[in-house]
Design goal:
The protein has 430 residues and is α+β, with helices and mostly antiparallel strands. It has helices at residues 5-24, 43-62, 74-78, 102-122, 125-130, 132-159, 223-231, 243-252, 289-298, 306-313; strands at residues 181-184, 187-191, 207-211, 214-217, 260-262, 267-271, 274-277, 302-303, 351-357, 383-386, 403-405, 414-415, 418-420. 32% of the residues lie in helices and 12% in strands. A four-stranded antiparallel sheet has the order 1-4-13-8. Strands 11-10-9-12 form a four-stranded mixed sheet. A hairpin with a 2-residue loop joins strand 6 (267-271) and strand 7 (274-277). Bound molecules: fe (ii) ion (FE2).
Length: 430
């Protein structure tokens, strides 16, 4: 950040914090306290934890003795995973905590917001400047939790047999869009965040990667295509699955994507707008890496690597069906067959599983201090996903952004794009 940090950060702080409250507005207090599985955090926890981040990493440092913590016990309750800060309340038991109440957590947010405004509007410029990175990180962190608020509450509401809707959003049936294969030249490419501006540490440094020629699908895999995989015995054919994936499939008794409900010969789909008939032309969603990989094998293709994805997306506009569109669900591709060779749906709709393990780039340097725990310590046993989803704030995404989840995770808006390697006869020139 520069000397204009105050001018940039003050309005951005208001925008991001208000966007969080707007997401929570449709919910009843009772919705906000439920934890339906260990990966799901109650909405109340998200509201408190994102405030704790500013309190702990900005206010307690910047305002020092003049800052009065709202409740010193919150450091244990709402620290997520920062061992450098101290012990944490167990993640899988966050739904066990009925106090503080939702009302008290909202008051906690107001307390933090008042102090942040004091800092951003009245503190000396050099004090704001020295905390600009922590504030910007806190805002990007809050945007990540905005997406988690939606994915977690979707799990909460879809677990409820009454099938409550989060919001009434329009369903768009769309029309069938032919899948085309778009070729990309291989060679030495550069990968990772370039230049100035905020990025997470896991996006840097920019570095060189060699790629072979490859082709990617012009759009995402649709629900209709995935239904064909199911009807061809996709969930009953171990030869299509990775060993770990087949074990997960058997153990969890998967038979379709998460939120697909069997109705005999057909399926309905649970969405943030309640139950809907299966929409065949919209992207399939809520599949694990294992399912994405098995589908790709069934389809005679493969998943992209993250380097291939970034090569394809680097020159594409960062536009798409993000949370601001209000659909809160992936949309059918609007790409016209035969149009200019550009891939559709690279950004928004669903996170695209890649075949790349989540690893540090060559020369990776974690953020300093406790922020070093933000990304680096999770670089094991997870796969990279790219492109953002219909629950991601559009401002948050770029071509270099790396999301990551374990291969059996299904509750995020995660989907599939296919790739393939052009066939080259043995001995043919490269
Ligand atoms: Fe967090």
């Amino acid at each position: 950040m520069t000397s204009s940090s105050r001018a940039v950060l003050a309005p951005l702080y208001e925008q991001v914090r208000n966007a969080t409250l707007a997401l929570v507005a449709p919910l009843a207090p009772e919705d906000c306290v439920v934890q339906t599985m260990p990966d799901v955090s109650p909405t109340k926890w998200h509201l408190a934890h994102t405030s704790w981040f500013f309190e702990r990493f900005v206010l307690e440092s910047a305002l020092a003795r003049s800052y009065r913590p709202f409740d010193s016990r919150y450091e244990f309750l709402f620290n997520s995973y920062y061992n450098a800060i101290g012990p944490q309340y167990p993640r899988h038991q966050r739904g066990h905590v009925s106090r503080p109440t939702l009302r008290e957590v909202v008051e906690y947010r107001r307390h933090v917001d008042r102090s942040m405004r004091q800092l951003l509007e009245e503190a000396p410029a050099d004090l704001v400047e020295s905390h600009a990175f922590a504030i910007e990180l806190g805002l990007n962190h809050e945007e990540q939790h905005q997406e988690l608020i939606l994915t977690d509450i979707k799990h909460v509401l879809c677990t409820n047999p009454l099938r409550p809707a989060y919001a009434a959003t329009p369903a768009v049936a769309g029309t069938e869009t032919a899948l085309e294969w778009l070729p990309f030249d291989g060679g030495l490419i550069e990968l990772g965040k370039d230049g100035a501006g905020f990025s997470f540490d896991n996006e840097r440094p920019r570095h060189k990667v060699h790629l072979e020629n490859f082709e990617i699908a012009s759009r995402l895999v649709t629900a209709g295509e995935y239904l064909a995989f199911i009807r061809d015995g996709g969930y009953r054919r171990p030869e299509l699955w990775l060993s770990d994936g087949w074990s997960a499939c058997q153990r969890e008794q998967w038979f379709a994507p998460l939120y697909w409900v069997s109705t005999g010969d057909d399926f309905t789909m649970l969405t943030l707008s309640g139950a809907r008939p299966l929409a065949l032309f919209e992207p399939v969603c809520h599949v694990s890496y294992y399912e994405a990989d098995a589908f790709a094998r069934w389809a005679g293709a493969r998943l992209l690597t993250e380097a291939e994805w970034e090569r394809a997306a680097a020159s594409a506009p960062v536009t798409g069906n993000f949370v601001e569109s209000g659909f809160l669900h992936p949309m059918p591709s609007a790409r016209v067959a035969g149009a200019a060779p550009a891939a559709a749906q690279l950004f928004g709709d669903v996170w695209e599983w890649t075949a790349s393990p989540y690893l540090p780039y060559p020369g990776y340097q974690p953020f300093d201090g406790a922020f070093g725990e933000y990304n680096g310590k999770f670089m094991c046993n997870q796969l990279v996903l790219r492109g953002g989803s219909c629950a991601t704030p559009g401002r948050h995404i770029s071509a270099s952004y790396r999301n990551f989840f374990p291969p059996d995770a299904r509750w995020q808006f995660s989907g599939i794009r296919l790739a393939r390697s052009p066939h080259r006869a043995p001995g043919a020139p490269a």
